[in-house]
Specification:
- The protein is an alpha/beta fold.
- The protein has three domains: 231 residues, Alpha-Beta Barrel (TIM Barrel), CATH 3.20.20; 80 residues, Beta Barrel (M1 Pyruvate Kinase, Domain 3), CATH 2.40.33; 131 residues, 3-Layer(aba) Sandwich (Pyruvate Kinase, Chain: A, domain 1).
- It is 35% helix and 21% strand.
- The chain contains 17 helices and 21 strands.
- It has an eight-stranded parallel β-barrel with strand order 1-2-3-12-13-14-15-16, surrounded by six helices.
- Helix 7 packs across helix 9.
Length: 500
């Protein structure tokens, strides 16, 4: 199943989209990766979701990734008398450790670590930022704050502290249990929520190892302050604009989106733009013009993927939302100005042989105008390096490992084919050429750029490049059908199946 676009689509599964029939329809509509939101999904349901996705992917003969999104630390207020109060602008409001129900002047705050970390002058955001307060003073078990923006406030609403670096891990007790479940059911990507510093990513890495790749959700001001170290520590990144727009002034979010996207691309790691991309399509069959422009802007910036949340999880038009995102992405990538926009920023070349090979593959493809770039890859790193250059033609990842194919389903422009490692260099070129020919990526007379590592099958050893032109048999120049015992046809490949 070939895609006609290079940016990938991530869709959140939920009640509106989780049946096997709907999952198959969504894959055909354009979904490349399904997100399982562990905040709202039980372990049994998550297991069922993944089993459904794997069955549909096998039926469609298409690599489909699974991203399990951990909830992260959530801080909530205690109870109010009557369940709701009204706080007035300019009033003093107290947070304390008294468990009795609160009123218009105080409430229980069941998080002692906040009392230890907050300081005078820090901003407190309640109910997704609708209520704003400034800390005036801190005593043992007591925070006094001034209401900047008042309003109605209900029991158990969330509280955010954008100025405060909290002494808490990004993995709560619930997250540890959800992480164990996610790894057991074979998630390809694990998303970490409310990361404050790169040490949070390293903590998760020690648990996850190489069993899944890590996506870091950027949604805290402290994460922006430590962005370079976080980019170095993670495998991929998500611009989580919803919470980022709560914890920081909303007018800063578009610039931060571009900054995060640029830094992730420079590192050669996938970046997802998320939250409210087609929000109106939760209840409408058509998006607003502003939403279409929002999706288009992310595609023009060269993001690896764009994501739907409630639109596909609980919306009335999940298929239409995916189709709309697919059409917008296709139109942007077909625009005459797209190439100039996506290459507007020149990234420095890393001083490694593998990165030099990837840059050379892009340069050759741009000069000779070949039909595709094919990368033999065991870990996916070769395809990632080539995709970093954002070539204007298909990037085909040839891998014997199914989990690698699924992880690459999130990466810009990469389409994967499962196939065994070649026997030698000559077989490598013939095999790549025939796969590209049979899968429809190249026609007779067109050229291919092929990258691989020698010795063959050695992970992380990309060190060679080959330019080949294809004849009417789908064979590279200098080879004949007699070399193939099956009459020039590719045998069914042996692939490594990763149990789920």
């Amino acid at each position: 199943m070939r895609r006609n676009r290079r940016v990938k689509i991530v869709a959140t599964l939920g009640p509106a989209s989780s049946s096997p029939e709907m999952v198959e329809k969504l894959v055909h509509a354009g979904v490349d990766v399904f997100r399982v939101n562990m905040s709202h999904t039980s372990h049994d349901v998550a297991k069922t979701y993944v089993e459904t996705i794997r069955a549909v992917a096998e039926k469609c003969r298409h690599a489909v990734g699974v991203l399990c999104d951990l909830q992260g630390p959530k801080f909530r207020l205690g109870e109010f008398n009557g369940g709701r109060v009204f706080v007035n602008d300019g009033a003093e409001f107290i947070f304390d450790q008294d468990k009795t129900p609160g009123g218009a002047d105080r409430v229980f705050l069941p998080h002692p670590q906040i009392f230890d970390a907050v300081a005078p002058g820090h901003i407190l955001l309640l109910d997704d930022g609708k209520i704003r307060m400034r800390v005036k003073g801190v005593a043992k078990g007591r925070i006094a704050a001034e209401v900047i923006t008042g309003g109605a406030l209900a029991s158990r609403k969330g509280i955010s502290l954008p100025d405060t670096l909290l002494p808490v891990s990004a993995l709560t007790e619930k997250d540890h249990a959800d992480l164990d479940c996610s790894l057991a059911i074979g998630a390809d990507w694990i998303a970490l929520s409310f990361v404050q510093r790169h040490e949070d990513v390293l903590e998760a890495r020690r648990i996850i190892g190489d069993r899944a790749a890590i996506i870091v959700k950027i949604e805290k001001p402290s994460a922006i302050d430590d962005l370079d170290a976080i980019i170095a520590a993670g495998d991929g990144f998500m611009v989580a604009r919803g919470d980022l727009g709560v914890e920081m002034p909303v007018e800063r979010v578009p610039g931060l989106q571009k900054q995060i996207t640029r830094k992730a691309r420079e590192a050669g790691k996938p970046v997802v733009v998320a939250t409210q991309m087609l929000e109106s399509m939760i209840s409408s069959p058509m998006p607003t013009r502003a939403e279409v422009s929002d999706v288009a802007a992310a595609v023009f910036d060269g993001a690896d993927a764009v994501m739907l949340s409630a639109e596909s999880a609980v919306g009335q038009y999940p298929i239409e939302a995916i189709q709309m995102m697919d059409r917008v992405a296709y139109e942007v990538e077909s625009d005459p100005s797209y190439d100039a926009y996506v290459h507007a920023t020149e990234f420095s070349k890393r001083p490694t042989g593998a990165d030099a090979i990837a840059a050379a593959a892009y340069a050759i493809a741009s000069t000779v105008k070949v039909a595709a770039i094919l990368c033999y890859t065991a870990t996916g790193s070769t395809a990632l390096r080539v995709a970093r250059e954002r070539p204007g033609l298909p990037v085909i990842g040839l891998t014997p490992i199914e989990s690698t194919a699924r992880r690459l389903s999130l990466v810009w422009g990469v389409q994967t084919v499962l196939t065994a490692d070649p026997e030698d260099l000559a077989h490598m070129v013939r095999k790549a050429s025939q796969i590209a020919f049979e899968e429809g990526f190249v026609k007779a007379g067109e050229g291919l750029v092929i990258t691989a590592g020698v010795p063959l099958g050695s992970p992380g050893a990309t060190n060679m490049i080959r330019l080949a032109f294809i004849d009417e048999h789908g064979l590279p120049d200098g080879h004949t059908p007699d070399e193939f015992p099956t009459g020039g046809k590719r045998r069914t490949p042996a692939v490594t199946k990763i149990p789920t």
